Amino acid sequence: MLKIENLHAEVGGKQILNGLTLSVGAGEIHAIMGPNGAGKSTLGYVLGGRPGYEATQGSVTFDGKDLLELAPDERAAAGLFLGFQYPVEIPGVSNLQFLRTALNAQRRARGEDEVSAGDFLRLAREQADKLGISMDMMKRAVNVGFSGGEKKRNEMVQMGIVDPRLAVLDETDSGLDIDALRVVGEGINRIMRRPDKAVLLITHYQRLLDIVEPDFVHVLADGRIVRSGGPELAHKLEREGYGAIAA
To answer: Is it true that domain 2-246 has CATH number 3.90.1150.10?
Structure first.
């Protein structure tokens, strides 16, 4: 589904990714771990098409398409979802308005019919209920006044509504307490653990991986993958840290 080959990228003229290579197949969940400054968030932003994050060498294909040639909205319409470490607030725009506009824009880009107001409200209510988000919150401005945990759960509602094929989740566990972590982790499993979907889960800690059990764990250091393995690698990192493994 996703194939990254020899990817180099820079931010503000500074080289961050240095020949990263990774393949993610349909039905797979891959965890990316690594020390601060290793390039984990940069990888997510490059895949999502964030301005200022420039791929300077290498290639990225998603379902056979050249991902780097697509605009951010085209990547979203193709089925890529980027979850942020710090979800942004959008004053003046309600969650419901934002999500219906986003969903129908993606459907139009794929040549599909738009979702009616009634069908959308049913879908939004279903997804919000499963993540513990009230419809009153769904009517509020996007993330405005939300706690850290509410922002992350709201982001899972967004993911459930747009129903992507590939989710790139940047430290979704950041700032979550134990209860919110379980709700978010179970949300990822419910929405994305399917044979035709895949997840690239960027995290520092083992605790989320106890809920969202990855098929593969990769250590990112100095802008490239330096070690790959199964879930046991995450446990080793938890015990020993990155020093010896990333050296």
So the answer is: no
